[in-house]
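Box 3.1 A note on notation
Throughout this textbook, protein chains are presented in two layers. The first layer is the amino acid sequence; the second is a token string describing backbone geometry. Keep the layers aligned when reading.
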Amino acid sequence: MSCTKCGGQGFIESFKKLPDGELAPTIYRDPCECLLYKQLDEQADRTWQGLSRVPVEDNRGMFKEYLKQSLYLTSDLKSLALTLRGALWAKGNPNFISKVVDENMLMSVWLSGMHEEGKKVIDPDFDYSVPARDILGFNGPDLLIIRLGIKNSRNIATPEVLVDVLENRRGLFKPTWVVDSQDKPFRMGHISWSTDGERILKDFEHIDLTSVLPTAVVNTTPSLSLPKKPTSSGIQKTGTRATFNLK
């Protein structure tokens, strides 16, 4: 549905009054707020492919304050997606750079150097298509979200790589969210667990997203056919029915 203010142009045309009360001959184009909404959707998809299809829940906006601090989260996929979507929308800054990764991506980047040197990589989860070639690349985002419990095959270097990424970002005073699940808690036996990793996470505030919000919200499925809330501009941002392809 087109914006009722700008008709989908992304800007509003107007004439300014001169001191004598006459209208200036120049047409001024002011950005419409619907342009910001489009940019926030694009930001969401850069953060996590498909995130723009997640409905914006008003009660998730309170998490925008947590975008600037490190957190240890326990969450299912739906709760994390809803929370991140709501927080980024409430922040309203499309220039804020955030990125969701998992253990497979961390390890694939770390192993890519060996692969380029012609060494054999023995890890069935290794992704040959990762563009990054150095784990220092994870220092870039303003906020990095690391999902744990995604990697299937054990690699003894996984805990060390996770700690390296966390320590590197902590040294730059950049926030990181580390996310485990109730099914795979971050403790001894977890594929990414180490004493150093546990020590670092003890300094992070721990929030269980499956318990801090109403059950009705937590159980909202990201089949993403739910409509997003109408904005003040009269735009009805409608969710698209599609497969939620967050990995």
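The two ends are 30 Å apart (CA to CA). The CA atoms of residues 15 and 26 lie 7 Å apart.
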